[in-house]
Amino acid sequence: MIYLVPWFLVGLSFAIAHTFPMNLGLLFTVNVWCLSMPHSFSTFTRDDLRTTSIALKALLLFLTFFFLLNGMMARMGFVLIYSFYFYWQQFHYTKQNMGIGSWEIKKKASKDLYIDYTFYFTVSIVSIAASFYGGGIQFFGYTLLNPFLWFTITPFAAIIVNVTALSLYIYLRPMAWKMGLTHALIYTLAYLVMNNFVLGWILLNIFHNSQYLVFMKAEERNLKVFLYAGILAFLFYFILHSDTFIIFSLGIMLSLNFTHYIFDSIIWRKSFREKRLPTLVKTNSKN
Predict the structure, then answer these.
(1) Angle at Cα 281 formed by Cα 280 and Cα 286, nearest 5°?
(2) Could you give the count of Cα atoms lying within 13 Å of 137 in the half-sphere of its Cβ?
């Protein structure tokens, strides 16, 4: 399911976007409120994280990002902020693919970790760098800062690099071939095959959000995490669209994403997984 559902939603979204091109904004909105927001909130509503202490830490981190971002917006504008958001987001996406791809592999040598990092980040970096070929990238109405001025590569050359990297990766890490293939395909599709950068980014976003939700369902083995995440997303929608907070909506949305990135990089480490094993074993023994 973790491979089937995200690709099904990507294919459906692609078909909708090409059949009704004027509804690209609607597709983005549906993705944000039906997938992205629940996916971000599910980080904090996981069974072993629904505690007062975790809630306070998340709130403190969120407020820190919120005040920092609003200060930066006033002084530096939006180009730097959107660029920072985009690249951190791609780093987050890459780490998630890499982590899920090797999650069930119990014995991993240190060399395997180096192979994983090399492959996954090579594909992501090359794909993003090639998307700058031929001009700047417009992201939410602003031109992204281009850190690849020293590295010019055509989309066709990038596809060759990705195929070569994937072939080597499958040879070296045959047990992790499924996510390796998935990662290469989604980044190649989003940034090298699509002629529309915005649509490609939305499809990648849909893939990432749905992948995370399916993974959470598999790990949690219950729907409470989605119930709480859905309620929070529902409340968040009305808060952001109220007259009081609508002016701060961008800062609030970005702060939530950044808080999610920080928490997500911590909670799925092996130590957290080991802490949850007794609970999962106990739950399974009852079923």
Answers:
(1) 100
(2) 25
